[in-house]
Write a structure and sequence with these properties.
Strand content: 5-15%
Strand order of the largest sheet: 1-2-3
Low-confidence stretches: 349-369
Order of helices and strands: EHHHHEEHHH
Oligomer: single chain
Structural class: mainly alpha
Helix content: 55-70%
Distance between the termini: 84 Å
Mean pLDDT: 84
Largest sheet: 3 strands, antiparallel
Number of helices: 7
Length: 369
């Protein structure tokens, strides 16, 4: 509808630009947000360390239970062998007319129950093998390669005379909670900076022309730098609400941190109390084993000479087995309590524990190894 030269023509419009923008971050909003993000990263690393510590503690306690079952089995096997000898003595006495068939039957009656208990312990040992294999990330078949444990005597391990409270700061869960408090504090700082003006700089450089004849020449060069300022004039309610949310999150993080510290101190106190109680019980159970062994020896000697009946031997034998098992459970309970104490204080007692109070959160997360 429009004749040339106003219509019917084709023209190329060429442009090529590079643009960049820079946030001056006058009030430190971006740097504080970055610091808060790093705090969350450190908290996640501490959470991972806490999971590793819990897994290690569970492996140790399972291994201690594994060793205990083997010792209980030795006791049951020893008692069974003693009972078989007593049965042989009863048969000899019946042969020479010093005992009746009733005494022989009484001596033979406990043997099937003892054999059944041995099978139950074997089943428990196999179950613990499978559990250890699973904890190590292997299939049940890997448990067959786990040999009988040989644990060091606990006499070489002593409870420290004092456990400084600053050791609690080495626990991964305490470190993680502390990092999250730091992150929430950064969030408050970021929320406050949003009340201030935001200043940006924008720059562009390029070429623009009609047609190709002047493209990429000085005549088509275009550049410019533009400052941009944004004022939160109409966002006061939104910004105040955001600050309130960040402050509430910070308060929540602080309360959670306080609770974690209290729980950590309670856990250490519980483990120390358990340790001391088991130490006292160990002396009592050892004395009880000595007395039960003496009573059994006297009853067996009297039975062999015909001065006592079999019921005295059976009573002394059952009592001896019970006292031996109680003593074993207390001794291995001490090992388990030590593992629990190590976990409660964050993975071990550092000889240079006085330095713990001077650690920064990042150093503490590495020191918790």
């Amino acid at each position: 509808f429009i004749p040339p030269p106003f219509a019917g023509n084709t023209t190329w419009t060429n442009s090529a630009f590079v643009s960049a923008s820079y946030d001056l971050d006058v009030w430190g909003k971006n740097s504080k947000a970055e610091a808060g993000a790093l705090d969350n990263v450190h908290a996640s690393e501490a959470d991972a360390q806490e999971a590793r510590l819990a897994l290690q503690s569970l492996v140790v306690r399972t291994y201690v239970e594994f060793a205990l079952q083997y010792e209980l089995r030795d006791m049951e096997q020893g008692t069974l062998e003693q009972q078989e000898k007593i049965l042989g003595i009863a048969n000899q006495r019946r042969t020479i007319g010093l005992a009746t068939q009733l005494e022989v039957a009484q001596a033979e009656a406990p043997i099937p129950a003892m054999q059944s208990r041995l099978k139950q312990i074997d089943e428990r040992i196999d179950s613990l093998r499978h559990q250890l294999a699973a904890l190590l990330g292997a299939g049940p078949g890997a448990g067959e390669t786990i040999a009988r444990p040989t644990l060091n005597p606990l006499e070489q391990i002593a409870l420290p005379s004092s456990l400084p409270a600053d050791l609690i700061g080495r626990r991964p869960d305490v470190l993680a909670s502390r990092w999250r408090v730091e992150a929430m504090a950064r969030g408050i700082d970021v929320a406050k900076t949003r009340f201030y003006p935001n200043i940006d700089l924008s720059a562009m450089l390029g070429f623009q022309s009609l047609g190709f004849s002047h493209f990429l020449t000085n005549r088509s060069l275009m550049d410019g730098i533009t400052p941009a300022i944004s004022l939160p004039i109409f966002e006061g309610g939104k910004l105040r609400s955001n600050l309130g949310v960040q402050t509430a999150r910070y308060d929540e993080a602080v309360e959670r941190y306080n609770q974690v510290v209290v729980d950590a101190m309670r856990s250490v106190a519980d483990q120390v109390s358990t340790w001391r109680s088991l130490e006292q019980q160990k002396q009592d159970t050892q004395r009880a084993v000595e007395l039960a062994q003496r009573s059994y020896d006297l009853a067996l000697r009297g039975f062999k000479s015909g001065l006592t009946d079999y019921l005295s031997v059976l009573t002394a034998q059952v009592n001896l087995l019970n006292q031996q098992q109680n003593d074993a459970r207390v001794r291995y309970g001490l090992l388990s309590a030590y593992a629990g104490l190590v976990q409660a204080i964050g993975g071990g007692i550092d000889p240079d524990h006085n330095r713990a109070s001077q650690l920064s959160p990042s150093e503490g997360s590495q020191h918790v190894q």
